[in-house]
Specification:
The chain has about 475 residues and is of the alpha+beta class. It folds into two domains: about 35-130 and about 160-240 and about 360-475, FAD/NAD(P)-binding domain (3-Layer(bba) Sandwich); about 245-355, Alpha-Beta Plaits, CATH 3.30.70. Helices cover about 30% and strands about 20% of the residues. The protein has helices at about 50-60, 100-110, 130-135, 140-145, 165-175, 255-265, 270-280, 315-335, 390-395, 425-430, 435-455, 465-475, and strands at about 35-45, 65-70, 85, 115, 145, 155, 160, 180, 185-195, 195-205, 205-220, 235, 245-255, 290, 300-305, 345-350, 355, 360, 380-385, 400-405, 415. The strands form six sheets. Strands 1, 2, 8, 9, 10, 11 and 21 form a seven-stranded mixed beta sheet that branches. Strands 13, 14, 15, 16 and 17 form a five-stranded antiparallel beta sheet that branches. α1 runs parallel beside α11 and α7 packs antiparallel against α8. It is globular. The protein binds flavin-adenine dinucleotide. Flavin-adenine dinucleotide binds near residues 46, 82, 224 and 436.
């Protein structure tokens, strides 16, 4: 089974158990106060990552007055601010594309600006040796190369994007669609009345405020609204799994890769020694090459750090500060020992610490490991995912279906979850909570919200034929009738 990071990242830290003193039992009472309501919208989307941007833009394009709230100053979430700019598994190993819609539109727009790179369509599922070796040399095999049933290495449809152009393009798409953006705004709690989510509380430089909406979409990645609604959540992650890790990502620029390659080819033993010296001195000398034409001499480092507490700020503080130290130390050692890195510098560390796992809903349909082997669509299928990461099982079951019910929490109305907090167990999340998947959840949530608002019906009652029609109109790829 191809495991995330295998052959790409050779070091996995063990989940650590660092915990500070918890003053449990001591509380304070907050004073009751009047809070100004700053918007009364149709749809409020919380979080401007892959799920949230897809949701807000789709809802607005379909006529809903939509507000998008984001805690940082840019859109894109982990795909831009987290520097994890690889959008994988858009087609299956046989070259059949399954993810279209918002995700494909985003990639197409970036391609037109020279800010996306992917293999040519005729090569998806093909075995062109030059292309295969390009991705393997870049340390991108996990995202681009698989073995087919004949043991041949084939290329997948995966795209890399320029995160800065990505932020700008998402702003353009949102503003063109008529989404009202509120950046630098932290959402702190849902407003719930009689099991109906009616709005959200926010904190920002403008103070504590409230926004009301007919439909609220949680696209915070971590399901931040879920702690305030009466619904069941799960947060189990298998230690050592992909989702049980924080990611600290940084980019090193001005690397002379020709010099590095020349040295690696002519002096493999010396390279091994240099790598060993860096490792012994506490550095991590592993990197991935940037694939974009205008990023020659840029390499990316994804440090993965095991953790089972990804919504705990003490843990995040520890991870951020220790990973930052290791990053700078590694680069100093690479400069010292690796030919080609002499003039390099760390151009950017991700403004957003990478989170892969966290709380998830146990919704109206709970996706589990068994659902990955299911070959039939659901009666309310909102997305089909290429299943490329489960080795032999993927060859047998190259598609995975997702029902609309997996976005709907139990026990509350007015709330849709359109991010990696969707309803799934840890095994399903391990494979299907990536950027393209969350964009599909977002597109479906936005379309469903627009229908619910227009018809004046609860989100749980949205007729599937209407939802399917809107998704197809938006370019989504869905089961044929
Ligand atoms: C190291 C690492 C590498 C990865 N590599 C890849 C990869 O190569 N390809 C891939 O497809 N996936 C990758 N992933 C997974 C992928 O990044 C996520 O699954 C995906 O971004 C999830 O999208 P999302 O919309 O659910 O959440 P996010 O991308 O986390 O977006 C959530 C957004 O909500 C905002 N937000 C959060 N809380 C609040 C709040 N309370 N108030 C206001 N705003 C809020 C955040 O600032 C953010 O903009 C990686 C993850 C990690 C950690």
């Amino acid at each position: 089974m191809a495991k995330y990071g295998e052959g790409v990242y050779s070091t996995y830290d063990q989940p650590h158990t660092f915990r500070r003193l918890n003053l449990s039992g001591i509380t304070v009472t907050e004073a009751e106060r009047q809070v100004p309501v700053i918007r009364d919208a149709d749809v409020i989307v919380v979080g401007g990552g892959p799920g949230g941007t897809a949701a807000a833009i789709t809802a607005a394009r379909n006529g809903a007055r939509t507000v998008l709230l984001e805690r940082y100053g840019h859109l894109g979430g982990m795909a831009t601010g987290g520097l994890v700019n690889i959008i994988p598994n858009l087609a299956d190993i046989y070259g059949h594309q399954w993810i279209g819609g918002f995700c494909q539109e985003f990639i197409t727009r970036l391609k037109a600006r020279g800010a996306a790179d992917f293999p040519p369509q005729e090569q998806w599922g093909g075995s062109d040796p030059a292309l295969v070796s390009k991705y393997l040399k870049a340390n991108m095999g996990h995202f681009y190369v698989r073995q087919n049933a004949d043991g041949q290495r084939v290329v997948l449809y995966t795209a890399v994007i320029d995160p800065e152009v990505g932020k700008d393009e998402l702003n353009n798409m949102a503003l063109d669609a008529g989404v009202e953006l509120l950046l630098h705004t932290w959402v702190t709690a849902p407003i719930v009345e009689n099991g109906q989510v009616k709005g959200v509380m926010v904190e920002s430089k403008s103070g504590r405020q409230a926004l009301l909406g007919k439909v609220i979409i949680d696209a915070t990645g971590d399901g931040d609204l879920l702690t305030g609604v009466p619904t069941e959540t799960v947060d189990y992650m298998r230690p050592g799994s992909r989702i049980a890790q924080f990611g600290y990502v940084y980019w090193i620029a001005n690397v002379d890769l020709e010099k590095y390659d020349d040295f690696a080819e002519k002096h493999p033993e010396e390279l091994k020694e240099a790598t060993q010296k860096i490792t012994e001195a506490g550095g991590k000398p592993f990197f991935t090459r940037g694939l974009l034409e205008h990023q020659k001499g840029v390499v990316w480092v994804h440090r993965l750090l095991g953790s089972l507490h990804q919504t705990d700020t003490e843990e995040m503080t520890f991870i951020d500060s220790s990973a930052r130290h290791t990053a700078v130390r590694s680069w100093e050692l690479m400069k010292q020992y690796l030919p080609g890195f002499e003039q390099s510098f760390i151009m950017l560390s991700a403004p957003q610490l990478g989170t892969s796992g966290g709380r998830r809903i146990k919704g109206k349909y709970y996706l589990t490991e068994d659902d990955m082997d299911r070959d039939e669509p659901y009666p309310d299928t909102i997305a089909i995912f290429a299943d490329n990461d489960r080795g032999k099982l993927s060859l047998e079951h190259p598609r995975t279906y997702v029902p609309y019910r997996a976005l709907l929490p139990e026990g509350v109305e007015g709330l849709i979850v359109a991010c990696r907090a969707f309803s799934a167990d840890h095994e399903f999340s391990e494979f299907f909570n990536l950027i393209p998947h969350c964009m599909c959840f977002g597109q479906a949530a936005g379309a469903a919200a627009a229908i619910a608002v227009k018809e004046g019906i609860p989100v749980s009652q949205v007729p599937y034929d209407r939802l399917k029609a809107l998704l197809l109109e938006g370019g989504a790829i869905l089961p044929e009738d």
